[in-house]
Design a protein that fits this description.
There is one protein chain. The protein is 12% helix and 47% strand. A hairpin with a 2-residue loop joins strand 17 and strand 18. The protein starts with 6 loop residues before the first strand and ends in a 12-residue tail after the last helix. Belongs to the UreD family. Pfam families: UreD. InterPro entries: UreD. This is Urease accessory protein UreD.
């Protein structure tokens, strides 16, 4: 660890071995690492990412790259929430790249990010999908600590996400939470402490998006939707699902249902949740 913070790198490459997907390449530097791959679903390779001890602070630099090769199927998640702590002025940075080859499937399902009041963070995400590849990835943010009454009054989170299909840019968007955009503003989070976005690229994405829109509307009075506001949009082969919530658990349940519906479409059966989520 340098005086300016951690510098951590993690590179993963998944390949199809015929009977199962294997972690073909694993390179790490610093406190980013993974546990041994697991196979609770036959040939699908489940990998749990381990983050820097104690969370991320100002000055830390994290670099994460993951590729899933032709015919392979990877699922990546985390064993716990990722915490971003109050900064004394330095900015933490996270650079992540996901590459999905033709006929490959990648699922990026981390547990929530918790941004403590005073967090300063820059996030840069690139997602590259080839035709015939499928991607499902989400980010769930708890801004402040609502359970403790800590409001995100100071700090700044800036994020840029770019999604490419066959190297054609189909989405470029920015996220800004904090200075210049209050959590309570109508164009921001409308006083909800939890925000989430899921990106989905797959065949018949427009049909799936319509199903989600119908579910969100028809079940808005269901107890799972009591504390959430959800919406889905389809454009240029990409579906974007967005949500706001009063608590992480409600958001997580709803997004998990969206993921299970998507996987059911891909594989013909609804998956159980990763075991680590039940610990």
């Amino acid at each position: 660890m340098s005086p300016d913070g951690w510098r951590a790198e993690l590179e993963l490459d998944f390949a199809d071995r015929g009977d199962k997907t294997v972690l073909k390449k694993y390179h790490h530097r610093g406190p980013l690492a993974v546990q041994r791959p697991l196979y609770p679903e036959g040939g699908i390779c489940h990998v749990y990412l381990l983050h820097p001890p104690g969370g991320v602070v100002g000055g830390d630099q994290l670099f994460f790259n993951s590729r899933t090769e032709k015919g392979a199927h990877s699922l990546l998640t985390t064993p716990g929430a990722t915490r971003f702590y109050r900064s004394g002025g330095k900015v933490a940075s996270l650079r992540q790249t996901f590459v999905v080859d033709k006929d490959a499937i990648m699922e990026w399902l981390p547990l929530e990010n918790i941004a403590f009041p005073g967090t300063r963070l820059d996030i840069d995400t690139d997602i590259h999908i080839q035709s015939g590849g499928c991607f499902f990835g989400w980010d769930i943010w708890s801004v402040g600590r609502p359970a403790n009454g800590d409001v995100f009054e100071k700090g700044l989170i800036k994020g840029t996400s770019r999604i490419y299909i066959d190297e054609r840019l189909v989405l470029s968007e920015r996220m800004r939470i904090g200075e210049g955009l209050a959590v309570g503003q109508a164009a921001g989070m409308r006083d909800f402490p939890i925000t989430a976005t899921a990106y989905i690229v797959c065949d018949e994405g427009e049909k799936l998006c319509s199903q989600w829109q119908e579910i969100f509307e028809s079940q808005k009075d269901h107890e799972d939707f009591d504390n959430v506001v959800m919406g889905a949009t389809y454009i240029d082969g990409l579906t974007v699902v967005r949500g706001l919530a009063n608590d992480v658990e409600s958001m997580f349940r709803v997004l998990t249902r969206v993921w299970q519906l998507t996987r059911g479409h891909w594989k013909g059966e609804t998956p159980g949740v990763p075991r680590i989520w039940l610990v």
